[in-house]
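hiii, so i know i said id send this last week but things got crazy w the move. better late than never?? heres the sequnce for the chain we talked about at the cafe, plus the structure i predicted for it. fair warning i was half asleep when i ran it
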Amino acid sequence: VIVAQESLAKVPDNLDLADAAAAPTGVLTGTQLVELGIRPQPGDKVLITGAAGSTGRAAVMAALDAGAQVFAGVRPAVRAQIDDLPISGVLDLADDAALAAAGPFDAIGDTVGGAVAERLFACLKPDGVLASIAVPPPEPPAGATQRFCSLTVTFDRARLERFYREWANGLRHVSIAQRLSLEQVADAHRAMEQGGVGGKIILRP
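okay and structure toks below
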Protein backbone atom coordinates (compact mmCIF):
# COMPACT_ATOMS: atom_id res chain seq x y z
CA VAL A 1 0.00 0.00 0.00
CA ILE A 2 1.37 3.42 -0.97
CA VAL A 3 0.54 6.13 1.57
CA ALA A 4 1.62 9.76 1.82
CA GLN A 5 4.18 10.19 4.59
CA GLU A 6 2.19 13.00 6.20
CA SER A 7 -0.72 10.57 6.69
CA LEU A 8 1.29 8.28 8.98
CA ALA A 9 2.29 8.38 12.63
CA LYS A 10 5.24 6.51 14.12
CA VAL A 11 4.49 4.01 16.88
CA PRO A 12 7.18 3.56 19.56
CA ASP A 13 9.00 0.24 19.41
CA ASN A 14 7.71 -0.83 22.83
CA LEU A 15 4.04 -0.33 21.90
CA ASP A 16 2.17 -3.20 20.21
CA LEU A 17 1.11 -2.18 16.69
CA ALA A 18 -2.28 -3.87 16.96
CA ASP A 19 -3.00 -2.09 20.24
CA ALA A 20 -1.83 1.18 18.72
CA ALA A 21 -4.40 0.76 15.94
CA ALA A 22 -7.14 1.17 18.56
CA ALA A 23 -6.09 4.73 19.33
CA PRO A 24 -6.35 7.14 16.36
CA THR A 25 -10.08 7.80 15.99
CA GLY A 26 -10.99 8.11 19.66
CA VAL A 27 -7.81 9.84 20.76
CA LEU A 28 -7.74 12.42 17.98
CA THR A 29 -11.48 13.11 18.16
CA GLY A 30 -11.46 13.64 21.92
CA THR A 31 -8.29 15.70 21.92
CA GLN A 32 -9.47 17.93 19.07
CA LEU A 33 -12.87 18.34 20.72
CA VAL A 34 -11.09 20.04 23.61
CA GLU A 35 -8.05 21.68 22.04
CA LEU A 36 -9.83 22.99 18.92
CA GLY A 37 -13.44 23.10 20.13
CA ILE A 38 -13.94 24.27 23.68
CA ARG A 39 -10.35 25.51 24.26
CA PRO A 40 -10.57 25.66 28.06
CA GLN A 41 -8.50 28.00 30.17
CA PRO A 42 -6.83 26.97 33.44
CA GLY A 43 -9.46 26.79 36.16
CA ASP A 44 -12.43 26.55 33.80
CA LYS A 45 -15.21 24.20 34.87
CA VAL A 46 -15.68 21.70 32.04
CA LEU A 47 -18.18 18.88 31.50
CA ILE A 48 -17.30 16.01 29.15
CA THR A 49 -20.21 13.79 28.11
CA GLY A 50 -19.69 10.12 27.32
CA ALA A 51 -16.49 10.21 29.35
CA ALA A 52 -16.26 6.41 29.62
CA GLY A 53 -15.79 5.95 25.87
CA SER A 54 -12.45 6.23 24.09
CA THR A 55 -13.31 9.66 22.70
CA GLY A 56 -14.62 10.92 26.02
CA ARG A 57 -11.57 9.65 27.93
CA ALA A 58 -9.26 11.44 25.51
CA ALA A 59 -11.31 14.62 25.92
CA VAL A 60 -11.13 14.36 29.71
CA MET A 61 -7.34 13.99 29.61
CA ALA A 62 -6.96 16.90 27.19
CA ALA A 63 -9.10 19.13 29.42
CA LEU A 64 -7.08 18.11 32.49
CA ASP A 65 -3.87 18.87 30.60
CA ALA A 66 -5.26 22.36 29.94
CA GLY A 67 -5.71 22.90 33.68
CA ALA A 68 -9.50 22.67 33.67
CA GLN A 69 -11.69 21.42 36.51
CA VAL A 70 -13.26 18.42 34.78
CA PHE A 71 -16.58 16.70 35.41
CA ALA A 72 -17.45 13.45 33.64
CA GLY A 73 -20.95 12.81 32.35
CA VAL A 74 -21.61 9.06 32.19
CA ARG A 75 -24.40 6.52 32.55
CA PRO A 76 -24.47 4.93 36.02
CA ALA A 77 -23.88 1.49 34.50
CA VAL A 78 -20.40 2.46 33.25
CA ARG A 79 -19.32 4.71 36.11
CA ALA A 80 -16.67 2.23 37.28
CA GLN A 81 -14.88 2.57 33.94
CA ILE A 82 -13.69 6.07 34.81
CA ASP A 83 -12.56 5.42 38.38
CA ASP A 84 -8.95 5.88 37.28
CA LEU A 85 -9.46 9.40 35.94
CA PRO A 86 -8.41 12.28 38.25
CA ILE A 87 -11.62 14.27 37.79
CA SER A 88 -13.56 16.64 40.02
CA GLY A 89 -16.88 14.82 39.82
CA VAL A 90 -19.05 12.27 38.02
CA LEU A 91 -22.53 13.21 36.83
CA ASP A 92 -25.50 11.25 35.52
CA LEU A 93 -26.65 13.26 32.50
CA ALA A 94 -30.25 12.29 33.26
CA ASP A 95 -30.05 13.91 36.73
CA ASP A 96 -31.01 17.55 36.20
CA ALA A 97 -30.59 18.41 39.88
CA ALA A 98 -27.03 17.07 39.99
CA LEU A 99 -26.14 18.93 36.78
CA ALA A 100 -27.54 22.17 38.15
CA ALA A 101 -25.68 21.73 41.43
CA ALA A 102 -22.35 21.11 39.66
CA GLY A 103 -22.77 23.90 37.11
CA PRO A 104 -22.87 26.30 35.55
CA PHE A 105 -20.04 25.16 33.30
CA ASP A 106 -17.65 27.30 31.30
CA ALA A 107 -17.59 24.70 28.56
CA ILE A 108 -19.06 21.33 27.57
CA GLY A 109 -17.38 18.82 25.30
CA ASP A 110 -20.11 16.59 23.91
CA THR A 111 -19.69 13.09 22.47
CA VAL A 112 -23.34 12.03 22.89
CA GLY A 113 -25.48 14.48 20.91
CA GLY A 114 -29.25 14.46 20.51
CA ALA A 115 -31.71 15.65 23.12
CA VAL A 116 -29.20 14.92 25.92
CA ALA A 117 -26.74 17.47 24.57
CA GLU A 118 -29.44 20.02 23.75
CA ARG A 119 -30.60 19.99 27.39
CA LEU A 120 -27.08 20.81 28.52
CA PHE A 121 -27.18 24.36 27.15
CA ALA A 122 -29.16 25.16 30.31
CA CYS A 123 -26.08 24.17 32.35
CA LEU A 124 -23.71 26.50 30.50
CA LYS A 125 -22.72 29.99 31.52
CA PRO A 126 -24.26 32.65 29.24
CA ASP A 127 -20.88 33.14 27.53
CA GLY A 128 -19.91 29.45 27.60
CA VAL A 129 -19.20 27.10 24.73
CA LEU A 130 -20.54 23.70 23.77
CA ALA A 131 -18.59 21.73 21.18
CA SER A 132 -19.91 18.45 19.83
CA ILE A 133 -18.68 15.64 17.59
CA ALA A 134 -22.17 14.11 17.32
CA VAL A 135 -23.78 13.56 13.90
CA PRO A 136 -26.21 15.18 13.39
CA PRO A 137 -25.05 17.90 15.79
CA PRO A 138 -27.32 19.06 18.62
CA GLU A 139 -29.38 22.18 17.98
CA PRO A 140 -28.78 25.15 20.30
CA PRO A 141 -32.04 26.51 21.76
CA ALA A 142 -33.56 29.62 20.25
CA GLY A 143 -31.97 32.76 21.61
CA ALA A 144 -28.95 30.94 23.06
CA THR A 145 -26.05 33.25 23.86
CA GLN A 146 -23.51 30.45 24.22
CA ARG A 147 -21.10 29.62 21.43
CA PHE A 148 -21.64 26.30 19.68
CA CYS A 149 -19.34 24.44 17.32
CA SER A 150 -19.51 21.09 15.58
CA LEU A 151 -16.26 19.24 14.91
CA THR A 152 -15.21 16.48 12.54
CA VAL A 153 -11.96 14.73 13.35
CA THR A 154 -8.98 15.19 11.03
CA PHE A 155 -5.68 13.35 11.04
CA ASP A 156 -3.07 15.02 13.21
CA ARG A 157 0.30 13.34 13.23
CA ALA A 158 1.79 15.47 16.02
CA ARG A 159 -1.11 14.90 18.42
CA LEU A 160 -1.23 11.16 17.73
CA GLU A 161 2.51 10.65 18.12
CA ARG A 162 2.40 12.63 21.36
CA PHE A 163 -0.26 10.24 22.67
CA TYR A 164 1.71 7.19 21.56
CA ARG A 165 4.81 8.41 23.40
CA GLU A 166 2.78 9.01 26.56
CA TRP A 167 1.16 5.57 26.24
CA ALA A 168 4.53 3.90 25.76
CA ASN A 169 5.75 5.67 28.92
CA GLY A 170 2.73 4.58 30.98
CA LEU A 171 1.13 8.02 31.16
CA ARG A 172 -1.89 7.27 28.93
CA HIS A 173 -3.68 4.23 27.63
CA VAL A 174 -6.58 3.09 25.48
CA SER A 175 -8.98 0.69 27.18
CA ILE A 176 -8.92 -2.57 25.22
CA ALA A 177 -11.75 -4.92 26.15
CA GLN A 178 -11.06 -7.84 23.83
CA ARG A 179 -8.49 -9.11 21.36
CA LEU A 180 -10.09 -11.44 18.81
CA SER A 181 -9.00 -13.18 15.63
CA LEU A 182 -10.35 -11.95 12.31
CA GLU A 183 -12.42 -15.14 12.12
CA GLN A 184 -14.32 -13.88 15.17
CA VAL A 185 -15.48 -10.69 13.51
CA ALA A 186 -19.14 -11.69 13.87
CA ASP A 187 -18.63 -12.09 17.63
CA ALA A 188 -17.10 -8.62 17.74
CA HIS A 189 -20.08 -7.09 15.95
CA ARG A 190 -22.53 -8.82 18.27
CA ALA A 191 -20.65 -7.57 21.32
CA MET A 192 -20.66 -3.99 20.03
CA GLU A 193 -24.36 -4.13 19.20
CA GLN A 194 -25.18 -5.36 22.70
CA GLY A 195 -23.21 -2.48 24.23
CA GLY A 196 -21.31 -2.24 27.48
CA VAL A 197 -18.10 -3.64 26.00
CA GLY A 198 -15.96 -1.39 28.16
CA GLY A 199 -13.28 -0.58 25.61
CA LYS A 200 -11.99 -1.27 22.14
CA ILE A 201 -12.19 -4.62 20.39
CA ILE A 202 -9.09 -5.48 18.37
CA LEU A 203 -9.25 -7.92 15.46
CA ARG A 204 -5.95 -9.56 14.56
CA PRO A 205 -5.36 -11.53 11.35
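btw Strands lie at 45-49, 69-73, 89-91, 105-110, 124-132, 147-150, 176-181, 200-204. thought thatd interest u
miss u guys!!
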